[in-house]
Write a structure and sequence with these properties.
Layout: E1 3-7, H1 11-22, E2 26-30, H2 34-41, H3 52-61, E3 65-68, H4 71-76, E4 80-83, H5 98-110, E5 115-119, H6 127-138, E6 145-149, H7 159-164, E7 169-172, H8 176-185, H9 187-191, E8 196-199, H10 201-232, H11 236-244, H12 265-278, H13 284-294, H14 296-308, E9 315-319, H15 334-344, E10 348-352, H16 357-364, E11 369-370, H17 374-378, E12 383-386, H18 398-404, E13 409-412, H19 419-424, E14 428-430
Helix pairs in contact: 1-3, 5-6, 10-12, 10-13
The structure holds nicotinamide-adenine-dinucleotide.
Length: about 425
């Protein structure tokens, strides 16, 4: 049993902390947000993630998982310290490392013996070296430490399964001692024969960005093919499905629609472009993927305008606000970009989301009218736009929706309905690439 501290109790820190405790380690989750720590210790999860509450409660009850704001005590009592704080996007696209560096200082001040300092946040190449420098400067005792880069690949909505059964675990290390300790941290995954890949710290840092940039590129690629399909009378779902049968291509991340959002892809794409820029390298493919993604909202608005004209003064019903199903995360959600554009243009926006409504209300206040179900949301609207493929939007009573709408206009940004059926039902229906 290893003693581990997880600094940052957000989407990544809380899930990783709970899963590492479930592996049999003793984990102390630390956060500066007192309310968050107090709530999670009482079993109130700060985020929506399927299965998380049960996992946290089980490990908390077994005494393997505890929550505190006392970083000092946690560090003293642990050999492995993970940092999983946020690294949001700055205006210039670079990663904001303020919290990462602050945590490094705080950890250093509490170090009472050898520690392995593990960077779990997504950070630009070279950050780990900077963090080591900060730790060295702020040590109060002359104690040794090793730095490790262990980027996280979990997806919100299936985070626990992703952490427990990952495609791979990447560990950037520089010493045999740290390598052995990290092997111990992930021991249960060895038993499941998960590929555990040891690399240099810099390679590990870049693997995370390159992976997310590739996924973003795949999405933008299929979205451009979707635009072409519309012009030449082909169907992107068929094209993508058959492309995906080629093992070299793979079927994942080939769903055309409104483009990518969320807390990771947009900011990680921006950050790798920023890193490349600083290094004097031009990443043209990734740059194009980012531009294509940014223009998806324009494509959606073109479709909307073609049906209802200018949106000024019109009522638009938005179904789904979170950036994808099974999360309440709104960061860079395409729905927010759409709603902002509609509000700017003087439209009345109504919205519904099964889980993310609380966060959405906090974000928009009175500017958007929120309703308790899809039917109340669409009642009297000029158009309905499906922005998130929540399961409940796949089984809507479409006849009812059509009757409630002032005009039978439905824009399906996730391609969840069949165009032929929607036409038969009397909708003026648009999806992407079909
Ligand atoms: N969310 C994802 O799906 C995901 C997936 C893979 C990697 N990542 C990466 O993981 C990192 C964390 O992302 P997240 O989504 O979990 O962020 P988050 O915003 O949900 O959580 C960050 C937490 O850190 C806490 N914090 C900030 N400063 C602190 C400090 N000085 N001391 C202690 N706690 C502090 C915050 O209060 C918050 O609870 C980011 O670098 C992100 O890119 C995220």
């Amino acid at each position: 049993m290893l003693k581990i501290t997880m600094v940052g109790t957000g989407y990544v820190g809380l899930v990783s902390g709970a899963c590492l405790a479930d592996f049999g380690n003793r984990v102390i989750c630390v956060d500066i947000d007192e309310k968050r720590i107090e709530q999670v210790a009482r079993g109130v999860m700060p985020i929506y993630e399927p299965g998380l509450k049960e996992l946290v409660e089980r490990n908390h009850a077994a005494g393997r998982l505890v929550f505190t704001t006392d970083l000092d005590a946690a560090v003293r009592d642990s050999i492995v310290i993970f940092s999983a704080v946020g690294t949001p996007m700055r205006d210039d696209g670079s990663a904001d490392l303020t919290s990462v560096f602050q945590v490094a200082k705080d950890i250093a001040a509490s170090m009472n013996g050898y520690k392995v300092i593990v960077q779990k946040s997504t950070v630009p190449v070279g950050t780990s070296e900077e963090v080591s420098g900060i730790i060295r400067q702020n040590l109060t005792k002359d104690v040794p430490f090793d730095r490790v880069s262990n980027p996280e690949f979990l997806r919100e909505g299936s985070a626990i399964e992703d952490f427990m059964r990952p495609n791979r675990v990447v560990i950037g290390v520089e010493s045999e001692r740290a390598r052995e300790i990290m092997s111990e941290v992930y021991r249960p995954l060895y038993l499941l024969e998960t590929p555990i890949v040891f690399t240099s710290v810099r390679s590990a840092e870049l693997i995370k960005y390159a992976s997310n940039a590739f996924l973003a590129t795949k999405i933008s690629f299929i979205n451009e093919i979707a635009d072409l399909c519309e012009k030449v009378g082909a169907r992107v779902d068929t094209v993508a499905r058959v492309m995906g049968l080629d093992g070299r291509i793979g079927s994942k991340f080939l769903h055309a629609g409104i483009g990518y959002g969320g807390s990771c892809l947009p900011k990680d794409v921006a950050a790798i472009l920023h890193t490349a820029d600083s290094a004097g390298v031009s990443l043209r493919v990734i740059s194009a993927a980012s531009d294509v993604n940014a223009s998806r909202i324009d494509r959606l608005l073109e479709k909307l305008h073609s049906e209802i004209g200018d949106t000024k003064g019109k009522i638009i019903a938005v179904l789904g606000v979170s950036f994808k199903p099974n999360t309440d995360d709104l960061r860079e959600a395409p729905a927010l970009h759409l709603m902002d554009r509609l509000l700017e243009n003087g439209a009345t926006v109504r919205a519904y989301d099964p889980i993310a409504m609380k966060n959405a209300k906090k974000h928009y206040g009175e500017r958007v009218a929120f309703f308790d179900d899809p039917y109340a949301t669409t009642d009297g609207a000029d158009a309905c736009v499906i922005m998130t493929e929540w399961n409940e939007f796949r089984v809507l009573d479409l006849e009812k929706i059509r009757e409630l709408l002032r005009q039978p206009v439905l824009i399906d940004c996730r391609n969840i309905y069949r165009p032929e059926e929607m036409k038969e039902l009397g909708f003026r229906y648009h999806s992407f690439g079909r």
